[in-house]
């Protein structure tokens, strides 16, 4: 039973007596917790998943260093990550799984979220000596030049607490280049031919497909603001965008309007990306080759080229997925 379907008289009574906070703590939150546990397989499976997460973090510190492959004849190839102290080991596993399946060197460019410590950087660099880090001070300097707070107050304020927004602001402000941004909670199990072709000669924006459409905002509002039909089921685990295609004035307006007219969603970055792609030709990474929300069975025996471990598929990720990379 969804939390919003709890007996209406309880919610009405809470509002009438000013006990809304008590209702959230004693009714809604426990129901949400129970529902989450059910989706994740129950308490024992949640414990196994958490234990797998800890084992993955320890394993990342012991990954064998990669030998640098030759550069691609067409020029340097780069992929971009937003990472931090809570995610460095996932970022590292994602990149290692990618580099092991391609024949030429790919340089991971890592933007910190402000939490990435020196020791974690050293652990990444030990495995990937050619990694590039973009420092926080450099990001702030570029933002102050290209997205000054006086002109873009919503974007500059939101990116502080809503870290996902930085995948747009921090990576693309002041740039006209194509960039392929990868989420950390992904693993490659075969050569990603489509990704490699795109990196060598991008023509259109690139994205994955979600298991279900998840934008956090109504399609009506998104299409009104974007002025074009919104593409279906855009997933931002793997996104290729050209900085020059982003209208920052529009993005500032969209962010403000979305939160004023509908409740803020942690999926806003995914919604904004879909809006940026509205009306444009796109390269779509097909399911099930590029798979979001893999099942436990798929995590145990991967058949897809790429897994993006969203939502309850963390169980497949931490219990099984990363072990395929570590054991090879």
Gist of the model:
This protein is 47% helix and 14% strand. It has helices spanning 8-17, 20-39, 43-60, 88-99, 118-127, 136-146, 153-161, 166-172, 193-200, 219-226, 248-261, 268-277, 296-300, 314-326, and strands spanning 77-83, 106-112, 132-134, 178-182, 186-188, 206-209, 234-242, 283-285, 290-292, 306-308. The strands form three sheets. Strands 4-7-6-8 form a four-stranded mixed sheet, sandwiched between helices.
Report on the structure:
- The chain is an alpha/beta fold and 328 residues long.
- The protein has two domains: 10-37, no CATH class; 58-326, Spore Coat Polysaccharide Biosynthesis Protein SpsA, Chain A, CATH 3.90.550.
- 47% of the residues lie in helices and 14% in strands.
- The protein is built from 14 helices and ten strands.
- The strands form three sheets. Strands 4-7-6-8 form a four-stranded mixed sheet, sandwiched between helices. The chain has a three-stranded parallel sheet with strand order 1-2-3, sandwiched between helices. The chain has a three-stranded mixed sheet with strand order 5-10-9.
- The longest helix has 20 residues, at 20-39.
- The chain is globular.
- The protein starts with 7 loop residues before the first helix and ends with a helix.
- Mean pLDDT is 91; it is low at 1-5.
